[in-house]
Amino acid sequence: MKILVTGGAGFIGSNVVDRLILEGYNVVVVDNLSSGKRENVDSKAKFYEADIRDSRISEIFETEKPEIVIHNAAQISVRDSVKDPIYDAEVNIIGSLNILELCKRAGVKKVIFASSGGTVYGEQKIFPASEDHPLSPISPYGVAKLAVEKYLYYYYFNYGLKYVSLRYANVYGPRQDPHGEAGVVAIFCSRLVEGKNPVINGDGKQTRDYVYVSDVVEANINAIECDFVGELNIGTGKETDVVELFYMLKEISGKNDVEEVHGPPMEGEQRRSCLDYEKAKLVLGWEPIVKLEEGLKLTYHWFKEIFKGGKYNK
Ligand SMILES: NC(=O)c1ccc[n+]([C@@H]2O[C@H](COP(=O)([O-])OP(=O)(O)OC[C@H]3O[C@@H](n4cnc5c(N)ncnc54)[C@H](O)[C@@H]3O)[C@@H](O)[C@H]2O)c1
Fold it and tell me: What is the pTM of this model?
């Protein structure tokens, strides 16, 4: 079976691609390398450097005729979406719409979409949030993810294009970019291995639900064959605040001289986020396997290896 992965050179996408190759799928990657890296892409996957907004993508669909599309390509920074909501919408809404139109025309059977459980619900009223929680995103990024879910339903209802929208919690693990604003685990790990002190935004009591990338990959694999159509939370149901995360990583790194340093709070940052994954358990047979402590160790050691000899530079 042929699977096209947009954003397949990025953090989550490339981890998904590695597993698809292992499972014997025929994999095509489309990525404009704006944040992804060519070296992340398994050499057994066919790679196209292309932008999802570009009309030339239609040639790739015509040539490759994928049966499944895993759509990961996106502008991923919540803060950048606030600074420039138009750019965010161009990539995350119009780019996605371009992909969905091509899926319809090429007769793609299913789309698996990387949505965001951390943003589509907005400030949660219930913890953890199930998929029935009110949808009130408080960032353009969250609004765009929700808009794409509505388009997915539209294409399913009118054209029978099946979809699974995986609403990820905060994903962390090897290959996450430590240079951006997103991904506190990657940022803290990279600072620790560089011998710098991590800086906690505000009081550090903001919570997130941290899910390890191999668990997210597993959800994608299960979504390929499932009959379910709709939205599924992919998280752990556990909240961890940034101060707790800092002390866990401090211990893992063994850097006893590192101190709890606080910077200014991030304006408009969501306070708490935590996802109920019961539905994914029911329809995908999916559960998070990797405990936070274990995932943080794996991630920290990956960063340590990669930073040796200054290999990981932007
Ligand atoms: N990391 C998380 O915690 C998280 C949480 C929820 C949802 N997501 C979603 O998961 C997906 C993957 O995120 P990630 O964390 O791996 O980030 P990432 O930046 O590593 O991956 C995104 C990839 O998309 C590519 N890309 C960006 N714009 C593109 C364009 N216009 N055309 C083609 N390619 C383009 C980038 O080069 C990159 O390889 C995104 O859709 C993101 O919104 C991530």
Answer: 0.98
